[in-house]
Amino acid sequence: MIFDYPVPRLERKHGPEGYSAYESYRPWLRDEFVFRCVYCLKREMWGQATAEFELDHFQPQSLVPERALDYLNLVYACRRCNSVKQDQAIADPLILLSSKTVCVMLDGTIVGTSLDSKRLIAQMDLNSPALCRWRVIWMRIVELAKQRDTFLYQQITGFPPDLPNLGVLRPPLNSRPEGLASSWYTMQQKGELPAEY
Ligand SMILES: [Zn+2]
User: Fold this and answer.
1) Span from the CA of 131 to the centroid of ligand 1 (angstroms)
2) CA 20 to 30 Å from 108, out of 54, 66, 128, 136?
3) What's the 28 CA to ligand 1 centre distance in angstroms?
């Protein structure tokens, strides 16, 4: 299911540190968040280009400027979700938007199983009529493609063609170099990249 939220992870796999501009973290965040918005699960492959995706400061720069360049304070988000969030202080989407805490129904609504995830869904307006309609449309496109058009199905459920080769990047520090071995680029090189996700 394309709107199944990920299984919650205890910690991130990458740990680049020390860049002087937060945009430098983009390839790491693309890989970390599997090329989709952490809030609504919109995928890079469903849009025009990666430029539609933004690097959201989880703790807003305006409130916590000292974390502006902290990788652990950045999440990968689509433009819509980043603009809805703005400077709200919200709970961690990696914990509260997971397969354990939310479920997307066939009518496109997203249901939270805890008070905290319900609050986050409301703060991010993830049940707006437009977003529910958008989910239904994509579920139907994917289902139709699965039955009728293998190429289209692979395009909209597979990985983007430009997987970042993180191994050649040289951040000033990397506290989790072991994460490189499980980057999607490395998986592709080893012939282990899943056809869809
Ligand atoms: Zn989004």
Assistant:
1) 9
2) 54
3) 18
